[in-house]
Amino acid sequence: MRSRTAFRSLTGISVAAACIAALATPAPAQDAAKVLKAMTDYTAGQKSISATFDSDIEVITPELQKLQFTSSGQMRLNRPDKLRIKRTGGYTDVEMVFDGKTLSLYGNNAKTYVQTDLAGSVDQLIDRLQSTSGGAMPGTDLLLTNSFDELTANVIDARHIGQGVIDGVECEHLAFRGIDTDWQIWIESGARPIPRKYVITSKTLAGAPQYTLKIKDWKSDVPADADAFVFKPPADATKADLNALALMEFDEVPPGTTAGAKK
């Protein structure tokens, strides 16, 4: 009985996939680029942004079992040089604060923080973290002022798949292919083209693990708050040497677990 049920389920999936393949007529790549450019121009034009997010990162074990780890967080950005991101999950409780002059990273589980002088813009911060430490969270490329150029730098194929609904909001569904990764993005339709969902799929790891980011509670023109980007370590926290790079890891992955999909 179980085998028949499984067979019927697989048959149903196959029929659905065939129907989708027959009916779907993705728009040309230039349409996908046009929609993505509208989003990146809009987000780059926002001087202050706050949002919450949920993220899932998949990993593949040596036994080829796919596991998914989930976390949530908050983000606040003031252009050009202030950023605060906090991510909390079952294995991660980390906060990053950047005030344009100093970068502070705090690990609540370890009650430890590190700080370094790092003057510059948020764009420069993200670029430095991604190029030197891999510490920036996947998805921070959506915050860059040159986000369109960064997102499309290695794209070899693009499609405007159609529409989708994220948290009850109609979105434009775009899909892009690269050499090492494929990625999809759902952008709110209408006058406020903000990113609602972002999925990165690794093509270089067995099982093609994915990183999924769902963005919620997006707000622009957030009222000024002098303390929003001031790092105040808890009284019981200790300052660690800058070599404590473990604090720069924002992924919700237990220590020793095979790394999952990143971009």
Question: Would you give an account of this structure?
Answer:
- The chain is of the alpha+beta class.
- The chain has a single domain (about 25-250), classed as Clam (outer membrane lipoprotein receptor (LolB), chain A), CATH 2.50.20.10.
- It is about 20% helix and about 40% strand.
- It contains 4 helices and 12 strands.
- The chain has a 12-stranded mixed β-sheet.
- Strand 1 and strand 2 form a beta hairpin.
- The radius of gyration is 20 Å and the shape is globular.
- Residues about 1-25 have low confidence and may be disordered.
CATH H-level name... which superfamily?
Answer: Lipoprotein localisation LolA/LolB/LppX
Strand ordering within the main sheet:
7-8-9-10-11-1-2-3-4-5-6-12
User: CATH architecture, please?
Assistant: Clam
Helix fraction by DSSP (H/I, runs of at least 4): 10-25%
Continuous helix count:
4
Name of the CATH class: Mainly Beta
Rounded to the nearest angstrom, the radius of gyration is: 20 Å
Main features:
263 residues, alpha+beta, outer membrane lipoprotein receptor (LolB), chain A, twelve-stranded mixed β-sheet, 4 helices, 21% helix, 39% strand, globular
Structure at a glance:
The protein has 263 residues and is an alpha+beta fold. The protein is globular and about 55 Å long.
Task: Explain the layout of strands and helices.
Elements: H1 2-23, H2 29-44, E1 48-60, E2 66-78, E3 82-89, E4 93-98, E5 102-107, E6 112-117, H3 122-132, H4 147-152, E7 155-166, E8 169-178, E9 181-188, E10 195-202, E11 210-220, E12 238-239
Parallel strand pairs: 6-12
Antiparallel strand pairs: 1-2, 1-11, 2-3, 3-4, 4-5, 5-6, 7-8, 8-9, 9-10, 10-11
